[in-house]
Design brief:
alpha/beta; Rossmann fold; 2 domains; 6-stranded mixed β-sheet; 5-stranded antiparallel β-sheet; 11 strands; about 25% strand; globular; binds adenosine-5'-diphosphate; nucleotide-binding; AAA+_ATPase; ATP-binding
């Protein structure tokens, strides 16, 4: 599925917090059309790297390009306009708004912020059908009119995915899509992410190796802010340095 292009590339990307190198000279390459996992022990720098890629943090040094264009230091909304959008967090859901209302708002934000140019044909007409389609894709259609505050945990996470899908970004970044889920929700989410990955590039962080093994074409293992290993899941899983890093956790 991977195309010839590079969706995201970082060069010597570094983030220093008060002298501490949380991300240290990272050269990352995410191929267009791939599903790319970022893994590593706690404190490895995954969240920091994620925040750098989406513009939520500015790097101390190094560069980030998206489809060849420099986005280093751009704020999140401008990075998003280049085609990179991240999953919303449960903490940004409104308890009193229904799933349908959330998706409607996300679709409005989508056209207002000018994401439209990515795939304009999908947004022409039939907004109601588009909302229904998104809710159906994440399995929330039966709960469309329930306030988000009353949804179960796994349902809230599904709503987060519907909201990032509403943006329809070419590059989708998912921050621990299965965190805190029971096994059934985990498997449902794997299926969902697999479907929504069709035709786009996905970068995700997840601690669950079953999820990583099921979804990722490519895995980057971070340790102490640096890339420890990179490759296919089976390749990195059997890498001695990776085994040692996880044993040391
Ligand atoms: P991971 O997501 O892999 O667990 P993080 O990116 O959250 O790792 O953190 C990497 C390191 O950077 C940790 O040691 C953490 O304490 C430190 N760190 C992260 N954010 C900050 C911050 N805002 N200020 C100071 N240190 C931070």
């Amino acid at each position: 599925t991977a195309g010839g292009r590079v969706a995201i590339r970082t060069r010597a990307l570094t983030k220093v917090f008060r002298g501490f190198r949380a991300v240290d000279a990272v050269d990352l390459e995410v191929r267009e059309g791939s599903v790319h996992a970022l893994v590593g022990p706690n404190g490895a720098g995954k969240t920091t790297l994620f925040n750098l890629l989406t513009g939520f943090l500015a790097p101390t040094s190094g560069t980030i390009t998206v489809f060849g264009e420099d986005v280093t230091g751009l704020p999140p909304e401008r990075v998003a306009r280049r085609g990179v959008a991240r999953s919303f967090q449960i903490t940004s859901l409104f308890d009193t708004l229904t799933s349908r209302e959330h998706v409607e708002l996300a679709l409005q934000g989508h056209s207002r912020q000018g994401f439209r140019f990515w795939r304009s044909e999908k947004l022409l007409g039939r907004p109601r059908a588009r909302v229904d389609d998104l809710l159906t894709q994440v399995g929330l259609m039966p709960l469309a009119d329930k306030p988000a505050g009353l949804l179960a945990y796994g349902q809230k996470r599904a709503l987060e995915l519907a909201l990032v899908l509403a943006l329809d970004p070419p590059v989708m970044l998912l921050d621990e899509p299965t965190a805190g889920m029971g096994i059934e929700d985990v498997d449902r989410t794997i299926e969902l992410v697999r479907r929504l990955a069709a035709g786009r590039t996905v970068v995700f962080v997840d601690h669950n190796m079953h999820v990583v093994g099921s979804l990722a074409d490519r895995v980057t293992v971070l340790q102490q802010g640096r890339i420890l290993a990179e490759g296919g899941y089976d390749e990195v899983r059997n890498d001695d340095r990776v085994i040692t890093a996880y044993l040391g956790e």
